Amino acid sequence: MNLESSKRKLMRALQSIPENELTKHGIIPLLEKLEFKRVEFYGGPTEHGKDIIFWEPQKLGGDRLLVAQVKHYKFSKTASHSNSFQTVVNQLIASLKDRILGIDQFNYQPVEAVLISTYDIDVAVLQTRLGSYDELKNKVRIIDGNELVELFLKHYPEYAEKLLGVSIEIKDKLSDYLTNDILLKAIGFNKSKDLKVIYTDIDFSVGRQSTELFFDTEFKPIDINFTFDEPHFLLLLEDLAILSKEYKLDFIKVNLELLKREYDELKEQNELSEIKKKELRSTLSKIKNSKSYSESKKRNEIDKINLEITKENLNKKKFSATIPIYGSKITNQILQKRKWIEEQVLILNKKKHSRSGLKEFIIKSKKILNNTSLFFTRSYFTQCTGLESKKIHRTNHEKTRFKLPIGQIFDTGENIILLGEAGAGKSTSVQMYALNAADLDDPLVICIPLANTILNWIKNESNLDDDYKITNFSDAISKYLIFKGIKIQPHQFIEYLQTKRLTLLLDGLDEAIKPNPWLTKAIVTLSENYPNCQVVVTSRVSGKYIEEIPFFAVTLLPFTVQQRNTFIKQWFENGEKKFADKVKRHLRLNPELSEVVLSPLLLTTVCVLARNEVDLPITETKLYDDRLRLLTGYYDRVKNIQQRLETTPQDLEMVSRKLAFFLHYNNKREEDKETLMNMAASLLRGKMSANNAKRAVSELIDPCNILVPMTDDGKFGFGHLRFQEHLCAREISQHRGIKIAPLLFQNWWRGTLLLYAQMDNDISWLIEEVGEGETIIGYYETLKSMIQVSPKHEQEGLMTMLKTYFDENQRHKEYYL
């Protein structure tokens, strides 16, 4: 882990401490830890150049007397001011000249002077210049700021930590997360790869799925007169108040102030009527209970009061207002906002920009997109704009493609949600940012794997309710830091959040959300409670929970061909050019594979297969299949390599499928070895003996590395979530008894279902089953995505079938208005 930034920060901290305070509380304890004896402070008006006196034990007995000067400045050649080189020379000569009374009452002359500076100085040059004085020749030892920092870090780290807080410890002990070793091991590559060497910048686009309508829709605006009742009129007023922050309200052609007055007057009349009815009912109750009235008189009075109540009910008026909304006025403004964002992206890509300029763009774009979302969600707006009822998926990102390092977006200090498909490079991007940030003094960047952090927290505090988790999520993070060996208490971490500049990189929202639905609220609450802290969240692109995170959204895009070639070149080491050429040639000759191998995960998998000299696949699912065959020893058998496995490749694959489905079905990524063994024995009862099933699990861990360590407490999983999803998809293909329809509405299963559709599985029966059940509207997006990855010759027929069911169901759908 690169700690240069922390060292620089420590050096500046030492420079900021008054000389005497640093000498007493820093340098003297340091010298004692270095095993010098009788270290004493000697500073003051009679010091004669000596700030410290101390004794160095000799191996053959006796102690040498040394003196030290502590200086808080760089050395100057100008002899005219107090910081001059000549001043230092005079003080050093004086420090060595005067004798000092020892504890044995004998006088001793210092044999060496130590010159300590808190600044970075040219020691060799200074040593040469001092050596030109006979009184100092071979008698001065120099410790400059760099060496002093190293001594503190090595021998007196508690003092360094006191000055730096916990930042240096955090950077050091979280370094093991800033690698892709787990992924590489899961693919079948048992060496480490330096992220800084292989990392390739990935382009990204503005927005999330819910903003795709903003960028992709072609409008067909019309003008409509809507009749609003009271609740919908109030909702419209709320919407217009929000929209007015970014849009002109010229699409509403009525006097809203007049309508609001009419509404208020009517509301007041109705409230007075309710008060009168309440009084009448009270009087009615008294008459009924009165004994002073005759029965006939009581009846007459009751009838009169009931008649009054009836009149009040009949006089009560319901609010209703007809309001024309002009669609063209809305769409013209939306198109202007869209054009502004696209133009700004173009400008930022072409011209050198400042951090403040990029920050201003993010703030304004976020405001535009947040406000505009109302035009795409309220039916009275969508009908006017001519928006199709079916959600449109964005197909072209070029107009909002940022060709900047993603770190520049993070550098703005704005809260960000980083989205991307499986294997798009989300984790690698934040890990790389944390690695680069280690070279900086400020802010402190902490990369936190959400799933493991929450698992560690809940495991040790099982009785926490959701409200507590939402308001105290900082506790989960501090407990994770403690678990990683960092000496920090929860209250200290809260103080850090309140007072320091901090960037939290919360990685893997999609992996943690299903068993922890409170998590989005916890993240938002954390960002609101600690405004000095920047929060960056990563997640896959789909899922309603994403909309609950109100951060500026950017989506990682696939590699361009140039970026892909750069990645391939950097992945292979010197002398491995033949493998790089093999991968590039294979992709060039197989356009279908080339179209999908545009993410770091898939490209890494191809590179590992090439490095293992395996024939390269031609589709994404075949790519994962080949990885599995590589790890289960199939290719070893083909090549007649000596076997290390007792379980056949076929059985290892079967056990992998069963365990992957077990984990996924239970919303998990990892489990302890004993649980996996017992589950394998249970799931494969009748197909394998319990001992063989358990042995297979052991072999999946070693030597196969299909199950890899996922947590510090010894739990195993399949490395990347995409590998688990691939095995689940294979299990669904093999096990026709698994009911797929209930999984369609669960975002956790979306990746698995898309892979299932790629595996030449006929999904027409699934569309028919869901369509006949009148639930296709809620499942439309997932089914449509499954069709888009199905074999091309089947897509047109499946899409026609889906739209037929959708249109039929749409006629029965109840709209909000």
3D architecture notes:
There is one protein chain. This protein has 817 residues and is an alpha/beta fold. Helices cover 54% and strands 11% of the residues. It has 38 helices and 19 strands. The strands form 5 sheets. The chain has a 7-stranded mixed beta sheet. Strands 1-2-3-6-7 form a 5-stranded mixed beta sheet, sandwiched between helices. Helix 14 packs across helix 16 and helix 35 (750-758) crosses helix 37 (776-788). It starts with a helix and ends in a 7-residue tail after the last helix.
Layout of strands and helices, then pairs:
Layout: H1 4-15, H2 19-33, E1 37-41, E2 52-57, E3 63-71, H3 85-97, E4 100-101, E5 107-108, E6 112-117, H4 123-131, E7 140-143, H5 145-155, H6 157-164, H7 167-173, H8 181-187, H9 195-198, E8 204-206, H10 212-216, E9 223-229, H11 230-243, H12 256-289, H13 295-315, E10 320-326, H14 327-350, H15 355-372, H16 379-385, E11 401-402, H17 406-410, E12 416-419, H18 426-437, E13 444-449, H19 450-460, H20 466-471, H21 473-483, H22 490-499, E14 502-507, H23 509-512, H24 519-529, E15 533-539, E16 552-556, H25 561-571, H26 577-589, H27 591-596, H28 600-611, H29 620-631, H30 634-638, H31 649-665, E17 670-672, H32 673-683, H33 690-701, E18 708-709, E19 715-717, H34 721-734, H35 750-758, H36 764-772, H37 776-788, H38 792-810
Parallel strand pairs: 3-6, 6-7, 12-15, 12-16, 13-14, 14-15
Antiparallel strand pairs: 1-2, 2-3, 4-5, 8-11, 8-16, 9-10, 17-19, 18-19
Helix pairs in contact: 1-5, 5-6, 12-13, 14-15, 14-16, 19-21, 25-26, 25-28, 26-28, 28-29, 31-32, 31-33, 31-34, 32-33, 34-35, 35-37, 36-38, 37-38
